[in-house]
Amino acid sequence: MATSLSTAQPVRRALFVAVILTGSFLLFLIQPMVARMALPQLGGAPNVWNSAMLVYQALLLGGYLYAHLLGRFALRQQAAIHLGLLVLAAFTLPIGLAELAPPAPGSEAIWVPWLFIASIGPVFFLVSAQAPLIQRWFAAHPGAGAPWALYAASNLGSFAGLLAYPLLVEPLLPLRWQSLGWSLGYGLLVLLIGAVAAARWTLAPAADVTASTAPAKPIELSKVLIWLVLAAVPSGLMLSTTTHLTTDLFAMPLLWVIPLGLYLFSFVFAFSDQRGPARAISFITPLLMLIAGGVAMVSRGESGLLPVFASIALLFAVCVALHSRLYALRPGAERLTLFYLVMSAGGALGGLFTALIAPLLFDWAWEHPLLVFAAAALLPLPGWFDWRRLPGLEPQVARLGLAALLVFAALLAWMLWDNLWSADGTRLGLMLAGAIALIGMLVIPWRAAYLSVLALLMLAQGGVDTIQTSLNGARSRSYFGIYTIREYPAQHLRMLAHGTTLHGVQSTEPKLRDTPISYYGPGAGVAIALGGAQKLYGPAARIGVVGLGTGTLACHARPGEQWRFYEIDPTVLAFSQKHVFTYLADCAPGAKVLIGDARLELAKAQPASLDVLAIDAFSSDSIPLHLLTDEAFEVYLRALQADGLLVIHISNRFIELEPVLAAAAKRHGLFAEVRDDNPADRVLYTPSSWVVLARNPAGLAKVKALEPDKLFKPLMPPAPQPWTDDHASILHYVRWHNLMGKP
Question: Coil, strand, or helix at residue 619?
Answer without folding.
Answer: strand
